Predict the structure.
Amino acid sequence: MSRRTAWIRFRAGEFWDILSDLHIAGVTIFISTAYMDEAERCSRVGLMYQGEIIRQGAPAELRALVRGDLIAIVANDLAATETVIANWMACPKSKRTAIVCTFR
């Protein structure tokens, strides 16, 4: 790919439509993402920790492994996010909560 074509920007919907068409055509696609909304578009997901795959399966199967509440936080302020999480974890209800943070 030339430098010029490397900078072509797709709308997010177009990009996922292209990937979907390739998948339907039988092409295996490997996607690396920290965004759960993107991972849920995939037929299989692998969760990695320190370079090792620790769980894999369909997105619904992995969601079913979470017992209790799942809170997804999208933030751009690390300090404020840490404060919110600390306050939540101080609540008795928080013992059954998994928190996923995405920073943009």
Summary: The longest helix spans residues 12-24. The chain has two domains: 1-65, 66-104. Confidence is low (pLDDT under 50) at residues 1-7. Helices lie at 3-6, 12-24, 36-39, 59-64, 78-89.
